[in-house]
Design brief:
The chain is mainly α and 232 residues long. Helices cover 44% and strands 7% of the residues. The strands form two sheets. Strands 1-2 form a two-stranded antiparallel ribbon. A two-stranded antiparallel sheet has the order 3-4.
Length: 232
Amino acid sequence: MKIRRKILSFYFSCFILTGLIITCGERQTSPQSSLQMLSSTKNPGISSRRVGEMEGYSSINEKLRQRLFDIDDKNTRQFSIESIGGIGVYQMRKLLGTYSEGSPTHRFQNGEPNPFNTMLWHHQLSTLARGFSRLCEIQNRDNVEFTVIDREVSFALHPNLRAMMPALCAGSPSFTAREFWEQLMHYEAPHSEQEAWLHFVDHELAAQKDTLERVQETFTTVLLNPYLLLQE
């Protein structure tokens, strides 16, 4: 739980302060905290922060479908981040960022980060990460199940992610964190962000004794990264 509290405090301070989402390179940090080192190393020629609105749930859904799930599986199109937190969250899905309906301008709404929509995003992405961590408890790691509004749906994992899960669950040296980062993040973050995350995985998450907690936080700390969630 100490790691979780660090993550909550760390990302919420980056997400909410002054109503902007700012990656942690803009924050003075202590060298003792690996997680707080994200983006602390400047990469010349590449901006070390994103400031703007959330991408919105439709855009994030496309990223997640392509990077986490088998795009050829018929169920993949059913996945939506706004649907896996229960009917209550689904009814509030517009707060996650979407285009207005019935308006000739089709303006993007609720994209500006604020404490409430940041909390919703944290809840949904943590639920997603927790679902993947539960794969470590079962033999078949080809599919992951989520409650989509009110029914269980099985989603086939992306082949690359499926190949990584046994080593990730086992905490094996054969798990390649760099490949995991690239699978989820692609090239949306500067190299310094990747290196700081790898340092956190190697020096703090590796010491986590609880397998489910370690795997969940491996997913969560990428999924909550501002470079994944913010518009350019």
